[in-house]
Amino acid sequence: MKKELHVITTGHQNLADVIEIARNIHSCVDWIHLREKQRSTEELLHCIQRMKQAGVPLSKMILNGSASVALAGGVGGVQLSHSGEDVLSVKKHFPMIRAGCSVHSLSEALEKEERGADYLIFGHVFESSSKSGLRPRGLFALQELTAYISIPVIAIGGITPSNMKNVLAAGASGVAVLSGVFGADNPVKAALHYRRIIEEVQQ
User: Fold this and answer.
1) Which neighbouring-strand residues pair with 34?
2) pLDDT tens per residue across all 203 residues of the chain
3) Which of 6, 26, 33, 124 is catalytic?
4) Phi and psi (nearest 5°) for 54?
5) How many angstroms separate the CA atoms of 179 and 71, rounded?
6) Cα–Cα dist 90/72, whole Å
7) Is 33 a catalytic residue?
8) Which of 23, 35, 60, 156 sees the fewest Cβ atoms within 10 Å?
9) Which class does domain 4-202 fall in?
């Protein structure tokens, strides 16, 4: 199975910068998540349209939030939060959209897989600035989860080039990074570094 590189917006940058970074990195990543919880529906759709105008393939974009907004924007997928829409309902009404779920335990993962999720994002695996003060779940929990789950599991939380091979060796089908790319001084260089490690693992 091909390992996937997901990059996620930080939610703290202005949209012009987000669009410019996405324009520059889309060729070396598999998915770009638009995770802008503070934005209105109108702002999100405007951003998606500007991404398209900038040459970012919407088929590579995942909207964190509403499936109906993702469909209206024409993006390739939707990432559902722990307390968000039910994935069974989303897949029933929007079967053409790739639907992922955020999970934090094996029991959650098994439930979301049974209800039709196309992939899962599990974390946080390591200490992360976005989860300050919360204990990471670690590689053992990731390995335990991937042993029982048949759909792709994408690891998130403190993923760096130095620990990425261990994450993939634990059974992850890919990694998701926020500040590691969108918050980097050189997002293109950072994305290429992650991509290079994925390619080394798959050789």
Assistant:
1) 63
2) 899 999 999 999 999 999 999 999 999 999 999 999 999 999 999 999 999 999 999 999 999 999 999 999 999 999 998 888 999 999 999 999 999 999 999 999 999 999 999 999 999 999 876 666 678 899 999 999 999 999 999 999 999 999 999 999 999 999 999 999 999 999 999 999 999 999 999 87
3) 124
4) -80, -5
5) 27
6) 14
7) no
8) 23
9) alpha beta
Query: 188: which 2 tokens?
Result: 């293109």
Question: Strand 61-64 to strand 31-34: parallel, antiparallel, or no bridges (unpaired)?
Answer: parallel
Encode 64-76: b = buried (16+ Cβ within 10 Å), e = exposed: bbbbebbbebebb
Torsion angle of C-alpha atoms 106, 107, 111, 112, degrees rounded to 10: -40
Size of the chain, expressed as the number of residues it contains: 203
Cα–Cα nearest to 15, from 58, 51, 41, 42: 51
